[in-house]
Amino acid sequence: MSTEYIIYGINGPVVTIKGKTSLQIMETVYVGKIGLVGEVIKIDEDFTTIQVYEETAGLRPGEPVTPTGSPMSVILGPGLLKNIFDGIERPLEKIEDVSGPFISRGINLSSIDEKKVWSVTPLVKVGDKIKGGDIFASCPETDVIAHKSMLPPTLSGEVTKVAEAGEYTINDTIIEIKDEKGQTHEIGLAQRWPIRRPRPTANRLPLTRPLITGQRIIDTLFPVAKGGAAAIPGGFGTGKTMTQHQLAKWCDADIIIYVGCGERGNEMTQVLNEFSELVDPRTAKSLLDRTILIANTSNMPVAAREASIYTGITLAEYYRDMGYHTALMADSTSRWAEALREISGRLEEMPADEGFPAYLPSRLSEFYERSGYFENLNGSEGSVTLIGAVSPQGSDFSEPVTQNTKRFTRCFWALDKSLAYARHYPAINWMNSYSEYTDDLKAWYDENVSPDFFTYRTEISAILAEESNLMEIVKLIGADMLPDNQKLIIEIARVIRVGFLQQNAFHQDDTYVPMQKQFLMMREILHLYKRSGEVIARQIPISQLTSGGLFDRLAKMKYDIPNDKPEIFEEISSDIDSFINSLLR
Q1: Considering only CA atoms, which of 381, 379, 365, 366 is closest in space to residue 226?
Q2: Which of 47, 96, 385, 558 suits 134 as a labelling partner, its CA being 20 to 30 A distant?
């Protein structure tokens, strides 16, 4: 497309064009002689404003602005998995091949390898009538994920031509369809979709299944539903990134999208190194076979940071439409909000709380509302689970990003600085965290784990709450002044905290714990608590209880009992009964 406009002013990543234009809001443009990628964000009679997703150093007034006629979009097709992209879906590995270790500006590369061939199997025949979202072909994208090519949601018609099964690139025509107007459309393996527009679905379904993570404090006390949204707020060093790494490694989603939004480059390097080496426990293959990484580190252009979140959620929705369950880890939404604040300041918009733009809540809601469990257009079911880290300055949970995130998420895993500094991980504070999904998930736990699961969970929560109240008294008068029944509460709570809630990511049996073992661990802790209550009721000193070593044994059972040998719990239960009975004789 020929050049139509010239740059009038430049303010960091914000570029203006003077005079009336035919540009559309959210249209993608190429800015300057080297073709920097930009997006139209404001239009009035006198000026058109563009935010540029690349470094604008050296750009000058008078240079050209070239319109594209289309909104900011991403390419969707086979080849996305196992890749690492920047915030606007440019493949970083290809960029390195072209420009070396530093990202050059104005590089226009296809997100997906256009020369790679895929073993395609068509799933329709001539004469079939198909509509938007229907699957017309499949190919093995990785060793563990089959890519299902879908008709773009805006098309429908009758199949007039089908390619034979064989090797094709993403640009080859697989089928041809004729729509109701008689127009013929050639359909390949790839399609484009605007990142700020949610992909359509047939129906939103209720959230009734948990996202199993293998992390006890999450699965037991504060579960998140498949298709739900959770926030992980915490100050510097409290373990937000580490917690998200654990979730990405072990949660039972089919596809993982990890978005490093404004994070440090060494953290993204750690993600790359760990994920490439980690063996997926579900498939015994590399975890990267079902992972997409989006890296927009803190030294990359700030405007692209804002786009990276939308790029990630669009990729997640694409795989959801195939019938997969996807999980998106956004680390962190605070850096994204800071990008909004910087762009807003350069646009001279009226600031709201702490300088953030007044539309911060609506942007957060737009993002988190794209989560959900859906019936897709092709009749399959899929989900997008959003887990966003929040980085409040000074661990102040009253700041705007944290408070507005709480409005749009139903699961809140509050990280605690004192727990993190005590090396208690995950450092999720059980008194400040909550999950509103528990009632929705109860039927699943009853059917798939045990009808007693939620009873045990409630009792565990009650003991922790009572311990929290008792610790306020202990600070005043000391633990020795408490009666034995209250000392028992503190002892059992210690077992819960150390033996159940605290988890070791580097231990082969403790890094991921199946639901059945979590249930049995709760059962044994509560069994010891109830039998110990019988001893206290007989006026037997608690020192005799603790001398038996059972409390310490239960605190270490997470290490001592392998995940595949639940029968050992029966031995512990028997030992508890034997010891308690000996005291009661």
Answers
A1: 381
A2: 385
What pLDDT is stored for residue 479 in this prediction?
A: 79
In 3D, which of 461, 468, 465, 467 has the Cα closest to residue 489? 467
CB atoms within 10 A of CB 122: 18
84-113 burial string, b = 16+ CB within 10 Å, else e?
bbbbbbbbbebbeeeeeeebebebeebbbb
Q: What angle do CA 340, 345, 350 make, to 5 degrees?
A: 100
Position 1 scores a pLDDT of 45
Rounded to the nearest integer, the mean pLDDT of the chain is: 92
Residue with tokens 């850096």: 335
- Listed in order, strand segments (DSSP E) in 125-205 are 129-130, 135-140, 146-150, 157-162, 166-168, 175-178, 184-187, 191-194, 203-205
Distance separating alpha carbons of residues 167 and 238, to the nearest angstrom: 49
Q: Which two tokens stand for residue 183?
A: 């127009």
Task: Give this prediction's pTM.
Answer: 0.93
pLDDT tens digits, one per residue of 141-171 = 999 999 999 999 999 999 999 999 999 999 9
> What is the sign, positive or negative, of the torsion defined by CA atoms of 416, 419, 422, 426?
negative
CA-closest candidate to residue 573, choices 502, 584, 557 = 557
d(CA 137, CA 255) in angstroms, rounded, equals 20
